[in-house]
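User: Hey, quick favor. My workstation is busy. Could you predict this chain's structure for me?
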Amino acid sequence: MPALTVLTINGKQHNVDLPEDTPILWTLRDQLGMTGTKFGCGMALCGACTVHLDGEPIRSCITPISAAVGKKITTIEAIAEDKIGKSVQEAWMALGVPQCGYCQAGQIMSATALLRATPNPSDKDIDDAMSGNICRCGTYTRIKAAIKQAAAQNGGAK
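Assistant: No problem, here it is.
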């Protein structure tokens, strides 16, 4: 029988009545109507479902809600409230990164976490941090350029 779970998502508390092993992804999308986080593979291989848990990127398709109790979940819906997240989104738009756009929420979440941890990333830092995010349209060159632009906007790479 499901138990009431309290989750903090984008700064607001949500009470969900779901089994504790329910993935965060399905809680966000199906229970709370936050559809910005996408389902890609369901096995944590593609990165489309990336959200932040206490500021760290996680794959929400395999992370149960029980792992998020007492922690803060941030989704693409609120990433622009973060200075770095906003600059990443602005760079994405300025450089026309999205093609189909399906993977972009996960890409932006991973890029934001990278720049928060490494304000002046090298190409290797970017490649390492973004390697778990697949873009079937192949916009990797534009993704890397947008990350560098966002880093420069925040005082990092020039």
